[in-house]
Amino acid sequence: MDLLHSSGVELVQYLQVNYREAQSWFTFISFAADLRNTFFVFFPIWFHLCEAVGVKLLWVAVIGDWLNLIFKWFLFGERPYWWVHETQFYANSSLPLVQQFPITCETGPGSPSGHAMGSAGVWYVMVTALLTFGLQKKQPCFQRWCLHVLLWTMFWVIQACVCASRVFLAAHFPHQVFLGVISDVCFELHFILYVQKDTKYAGMF
Ligand SMILES: O=P(O)(O)OC[C@H]1O[C@@H](O)[C@H](O)[C@@H](O)[C@@H]1O
């Protein structure tokens, strides 16, 4: 685990040294990816545009945050900024210099990342909703393909920015943000394949 953590710290340092000028961008991304913005911004907008999507967003945010908490209780997970100061791994060498930012120090465990998990879930719902609205039956195949490529590229670019932001801020190790995105995509697929189709939950989502 120490090796995984130390290689994660190297990536944190690489980002902090080489992308220092992007600090405000990374801070903004972490601020924007906080689930509070789903409740205060995305939910009201989508509820106004399409009630069903608004309600789905709310469910995904609430269940996603709850799942993240449960995962964190089981997996726990260090956070890079604290780990470099507490580990014995660097006992015989100098401590790597990891910069702290105003939003670096989160109080909970680190694995998996709540920001990565939350933004994956929320953007998954919004992208699939935009696809449903954007795709009409008589549209040429090429246009449909372009819309798919455009929206899914946007989805993965946003996820990459959120992951890079959490690592840059030294709030997470790379494997924690990766786990956050992957676990939420699995949850979404399970939700779509099983929960949503189950008649027991008809009318809830
Ligand atoms: O695990 P991370 O990325 O530091 O995020 C933790 C926080 O992420 C936020 O999005 C949630 O609303 C919080 O409940 C949670 O504590």
UniProtKB/TrEMBL annotation:
<dbReference type="GO" id="GO:0004346">
    <property type="term" value="F:glucose-6-phosphatase activity"/>
</dbReference>
<keyword id="KW-1133">Transmembrane helix</keyword>
<feature type="domain" description="Phosphatidic acid phosphatase type 2/haloperoxidase">
    <location>
        <begin position="53"/>
        <end position="191"/>
    </location>
</feature>
<dbReference type="Pfam" id="PF01569">
    <property type="entry name" value="PAP2"/>
</dbReference>
<keyword id="KW-0472">Membrane</keyword>
<feature type="transmembrane region" description="Helical">
    <location>
        <begin position="147"/>
        <end position="171"/>
    </location>
</feature>
<feature type="transmembrane region" description="Helical">
    <location>
        <begin position="57"/>
        <end position="76"/>
    </location>
</feature>
<feature type="transmembrane region" description="Helical">
    <location>
        <begin position="116"/>
        <end position="135"/>
    </location>
</feature>
<keyword id="KW-0312">Gluconeogenesis</keyword>
<dbReference type="InterPro" id="IPR036938">
    <property type="entry name" value="PAP2/HPO_sf"/>
</dbReference>
<keyword id="KW-0256">Endoplasmic reticulum</keyword>
<comment type="pathway">
    <text>Carbohydrate biosynthesis; gluconeogenesis.</text>
</comment>
<comment type="similarity">
    <text>Belongs to the glucose-6-phosphatase family.</text>
</comment>
<dbReference type="InterPro" id="IPR000326">
    <property type="entry name" value="PAP2/HPO"/>
</dbReference>
<dbReference type="GO" id="GO:0005789">
    <property type="term" value="C:endoplasmic reticulum membrane"/>
</dbReference>
<feature type="transmembrane region" description="Helical">
    <location>
        <begin position="177"/>
        <end position="195"/>
    </location>
</feature>
<protein>
    <recommendedName>
        <fullName>glucose-6-phosphatase</fullName>
        <ecNumber>3.1.3.9</ecNumber>
    </recommendedName>
</protein>
<dbReference type="GO" id="GO:0006094">
    <property type="term" value="P:gluconeogenesis"/>
</dbReference>
<dbReference type="GO" id="GO:0051156">
    <property type="term" value="P:glucose 6-phosphate metabolic process"/>
</dbReference>
<feature type="transmembrane region" description="Helical">
    <location>
        <begin position="25"/>
        <end position="45"/>
    </location>
</feature>
<keyword id="KW-0812">Transmembrane</keyword>
<keyword id="KW-0378">Hydrolase</keyword>
